[in-house]
Amino acid sequence: MYFCKEYISIDEIRKEVPLFSFVFILLKLMLIVDYTLFVQMKKIIFSLIVTAMIMTMTGCGSSKGFTYLENADSISLAASRGLYDARIMPKDELTITVNTTDPDAAAPFNLQVRNQLGSGKQVASGGGSLQGYLVDNSGFINFPVIGKIHVSGLTKPECEDLIKSKIQPYLARTENPIVTVRMSSYHITVLGEVGHPGVIPVSTEKMSVLEAIAQAGDLGVYGKRDNIMLIREDPTGQKHVVRLNLNDANLLNSPYYYLQQNDVLYVQPNSVKAKNSGIGSSTTLWFSFIGIVTSVASLLVNVLRK
Hints:
Blueprint: H1 10-16, H2 19-32, H3 35-58, E1 93-99, H4 103-106, E2 112-114, E3 120-122, E4 132-134, E5 140-143, E6 147-150, H5 156-167, E7 178-183, E8 187-192, E9 198-201, H6 209-215, E10 228-233, E11 239-244, E12 264-267, H7 271-278, H8 281-305
Parallel strand pairs: 8-12
Antiparallel strand pairs: 1-4, 1-7, 2-3, 5-6, 8-9, 10-11, 10-12
């Protein structure tokens, strides 16, 4: 870049003098430029800035990449048939109650609950609060009377049937116990470019990816919809990372459409957010400084012209 007839390279000057000395020299060079040329340059630069701003504000945006399940009308959803049942995993907390027509018959199979005064009572026939059983690392719970029962990998109905079969020999033949199992610690975590990141409790023990995102306040405009990161831990403790594309309706057929307990969804920022984050306070300061220099130069030219 050169000014006037002096053919002085600004890049060379910048190497030889400090920043503020460079600015001072730049102002002096601007003063010796023909005023008409300076005005024309100002008009051209101003026109370019205004044009860029208008194009930015009025440019037509496309919804492509922002619409969920864009190709939903062109794919088969046959693979998505069937009801989802969560499976019990180590470290899950289960609430289990046993009910019989004779409350005394069910009492030994229900844990004792202590109230605030410290006295204990048995839970049977639907009375009292639900009991908590923590599944250990090997997948077992320690059930009253029965002892260790392996429940990891079972669905709720399977676990209920298993416990029922274990306690049936201890009951009268006329008794048909009702066993209820709930996963009380079921939750999902959503992080990143969403409205309300955080931990979402799942009382129904069933939640899809879309439901989790809706619960988290939906994705923001900076959220990457085609590359959602799902972090899932298997029963052995091994973590796996899966990428999900919300734009593709094949997500509905994916085995990862329904989330497991303790799943983590991370919505990454898109390229626009990444670029914006690169414009830090130092860059903003430089833009302000350039604006001040331009204003001072214009003022000096006007003063010297009079």
